[in-house]
Amino acid sequence: xxxxxxxxxxxxxxxxxxxxxxxxxxxxxxxxxxxxxxxxxxxxxxxxxxxxxxxxxxxxxxxxxxxxxxxxxxxxxxxxxxxxxxxxxxxxxxxxxxxxxxxxxxxxxxxxxxxxxxxxxxxxxxxxxxxxxxxxxxxxxxxxxxxxxxxxxxxxxxxxxxxxxxxxxxxxxxxxxxxxxxxxxxxxxxxxxxxxxxxxxxxxxxxxxxxxxxxxxxxxxxxxxxxxxxxxxxxxxxxxxxxxxxxxxxxxxxxxxxxxxxxxxxxxxxxxxx
Length: 274
Known about the structure:
Elements: H1 2-42, H2 54-85, H3 118-128, H4 139-149, H5 156-162, H6 165-168, H7 179-182, E1 188-189, E2 192-193, H8 196-212, H9 219-226, H10 233-238, H11 246-258
Antiparallel strand pairs: 1-2
Helix pairs in contact: 1-2, 3-4, 5-11, 8-9, 9-11
Region (Disordered): 89-109
Keywords: Membrane, Transmembrane, Transmembrane helix
Transmembrane segments: 12-37, 57-79
């Protein structure tokens, strides 16, 4: 009851002002109409016409309409105040109806947009086919598959400075710890999970292709990506015998596989030779 009285007192001045305004406006309108009627009748001189009391009529009409309108406005104002002060009930989402909004899960990252040659794609599929369930594809396995399938390149010149793949343990070289030990999500290539180092290899190879205008990523460019970073399993395996350093290895890949030196390659691969 106390709150209702407080709401009423808060809304009363505005409602009363509206009511008084309606009464005064009705009387003023009637007064103006009466002046017009008197002016017209003063011009009629043939016979006497009774003068209507228009202002009094409109004053009575305003005295009725004004309080009624003010009362309606007062009731509506008090009701609005009561609704605004009432605490809202928050209902949980119902089955089949609107419920809490949940953020959409982010799609897994992929490197499917890197255009590779058919031979590189075959090597990736071949290496992925030898993985144990749940294992990530690694740089070492992919490089071994490239060597086995792309026999046109002179790989022997690389082995002369690094040692043969069998000596360095290239195929079994790990990149990172298992996914569960780092994070459960992995970047994929055609639904094959990649190690972080192999993901970097894709990114580097794609950057080399764009910078130097190659139409696709072929075996030589992808090998540059596989060996771009010292922490990759393939790089560590080929440097394990200590016969060559990282910069010279990248130089041999350019000279013996790509058959050209790429100027400014350090902007993409910091370890590349000048």
